[in-house]
Amino acid sequence: MLIIKDLHASVEGKEILRGINLTIHAGEVHAIMGPNGSGKSTLANVLAGNTSFEVTKGEVTFNGKDLLAMSADVRAKEGLFLSFQYPVEIPGVSMINFLKTAVNESRKYHQLKELSAGDFLKVMREKKEMVQIDSQLTNRSVNEGFSGGEKKKNEIFQMAMLEPKLAILDETDSGLDIDALRIVANGVNLLKKPENATIVVTHYQRLLDYIVPDFVHVLYKGQIVKSAGKELVLELEEKGYDWIKKELGE
Amino acid sequence: MDNQNKLLNEVTERDYRFGFVTDIETDIIPVGLSEEVVRIISAKKEEPDFMLEFRLKAYRKWLTMKMPDWAQLKIPEIDYQAISYYAAPRNQPKYESLDEVDPELLSTFAKLGIPLEEQKMLAGVAVDAVMDSVSVKTTFKENLAELGIIFCSFSEAVKHHPDLVQKYLGMVVPPNDNFFAALNCAVFSDGSFVYIPKGVRCPMELSTYFRINARNTGQFERTLIIADNDSYVSYLEGCTAPMRDENQLHAAVVEIVALDRAEVKYSTVQNWYPGNKEGVGGIYNFVTKRGLCKGESSKIYWNQVETGSAITWKYPSCILMGDNSVAEFNSVALTNNYQQADTGTKMIHLGKNTKSTIVSKGISAGHSSNSYRGLVRVAAKAENSRNYSQCDSLLLGENCGAHTFPYLEVGNQNSVVEHEATTSKIGEDQIFYCNQRGISTQDAIGMIVNGYAREVINKLPMEFAVEAQKLLQISLEGSVG
């Protein structure tokens, strides 16, 4: 589904990603872990098409198409979803209006009929239940005045509405208490399908207790320095990231 | 990042969508302004003596006045002798039905999206359409007449209701008020007149569409709205003008008088031709709009969405004279390309327990300049008065400017005046967030700008709110994709 080859990216002239190689197949859950500043969020943003980052080298194909040639909105319409570490507030734009536009833009792109207001509200009700989001939130402006937990739940709710092929969860666990964490993880698991894939970007192991990865990659100084199965999570938890640094001879 | 800027530029560099010229013969008097011209205008309109006197007094005052230069505007030299001060469609019988109206005129209205036929059927809107300076068609008049409501062209009001006109004309904006008001008083051609009798709630939104259509013709519209005791009216004004290369002067005056417990809501969507992308052409819009809360507990609300004109100089204001009177000013002003706007309000508190609210939302794009200028004055005897002002500016791109000039004068100890101001840039993070959900940059900007302005747009009557949203979007959108 996603093939990343020798991906380099920089921000304001500073190289952050220094040759990422990664292949993800449908149905898989990949965890990307690593210490602060290793480039995890940069990778998530580069894949989503954030123009604050400049891709200097490498290629990425997404379902056979050149991902890097697409603008951010086209990537989204092609089925790539990013759950933001810091969801952005858009004052005065109602959640319903925002999502209805998003869903229908995507449907138009795939030459499907736009959802009527009634159908849209029906789908929204179902998904709201699935991710246990407070119904009041959808009547408010996008993320405005939401608590940290509400913002993260809202990301998963949007993911449920948009039904992406590839979901990238960027530090979705940060700022969540244990109950909210469970609800968010549960939502992600319910949305999992054999034809979809998920990338979980996280600093800690605790989210991975609930969303069990098939593969775990450790990112360090802009490169993937170690890849293994889910047992790597426990090893990292036990030994810390210093263990990786030592292995690398630092 | 560069890509983002490029998109922003493309989005903000769009052409005016309503530029077209209707070919209808017009009857123009020679260019230039003199006492003679003022007399000709008055004579052509068959006005009574008090009107001619009013005009001549204003004209003589105007000769002694200078154009104001305190605004944050670069105004090219205006040659007042190069302007024609009166134009009227030549064949102007009074029509009984739309079938008799010049089909070309009807198609002009259709292009503007205001087909009279439909509006006639769409319950609730009476239209007094002003083509150049003379009223062409008034609808719904009979229904309103049953309630004693007068809604007609200014000329008709002068003919049929001279007492009301003589009593109220110039009460709120006297001829010596300012340079442009004096000019308007001297040469105004036509406009709208509204009188709501005691205790009557006007059952429909009153609406006027103005349109400049004759080359080199200044527009000097005059509107007078009088709401008698315990009455209510909501008045809508909207306009769009055809594309022209030379600049056109527009100096309108609007006066509102609200008597005891009366309530007047005045809503504007202003979309005069703003000039092209290089800043050539466009309307110069020097407007004096003022409301007088004359009676106790009276209320006046100004709601406006301004996207047009090359230069805007406009401060819809309220004088809160009656005790417990209430005034609001809610405004969205959008400037793009090389447009300049210096706009805001004045709230003058004279009565006790008076309350005013100002919400101003400026949006600047391209190379435009957008200033808010507001005066809040609380007189010594206006005890326990309150004002709340909120002035926000939103910047799109690197080359535009936004300024805020608040003036506060509080003459007593027990009144409260609050002022808040913010300036923000449209966030690349907001645009990326929308992009990531599949929303294009063009749609994202439209959505974010409309969200920013929503507080004001929500104050507009339904039919105008929709139009205003579209207008904000198309004023910024265009050439992307």
Structural notes for this entry:
The complex is a heterodimer of chains A (250) and B (481). Chain A has a single domain (2-247), classed as P-loop containing nucleotide triphosphate hydrolases (Rossmann fold, 3-Layer(aba) Sandwich). Chain A has a 6-stranded mixed β-sheet with strand order 6-9-10-3-11-12, sandwiched between helices. Chain A has a 4-stranded antiparallel β-sheet with strand order 2-1-4-5, with helices on one face. Chain A has a two-stranded antiparallel ribbon with strand order 7-8. Chain A is built from 8 helices and 12 strands. By secondary structure, chain A is α/β, with parallel strands linked by helices. In chain A, 36% of the residues lie in helices and 28% in strands. Chain A is globular. In chain A, helix 4 crosses helix 5 and helix 5 (148-162) runs parallel beside helix 6. Chain B is of the alpha/beta class. Helix content of chain B is 25%, strand content 34%. In chain B, helix 3 (49-63) runs antiparallel to helix 9 and helix 7 (154-160) packs across helix 8.
Uncertain segments of chain B are 89-94, 117-127, 129-137, 209-218
Shape of chain A: globular
- In N-to-C order, the SSE pattern of chain A is EEEHEEHEEHHEHEHEEEHH
Q: Level of helix content of chain A?
A: 25-40%
Low-pLDDT regions of chain A: none
State the major sheet of chain A. 6 strands, mixed
- Give the helix/strand class of chain A: alpha/beta
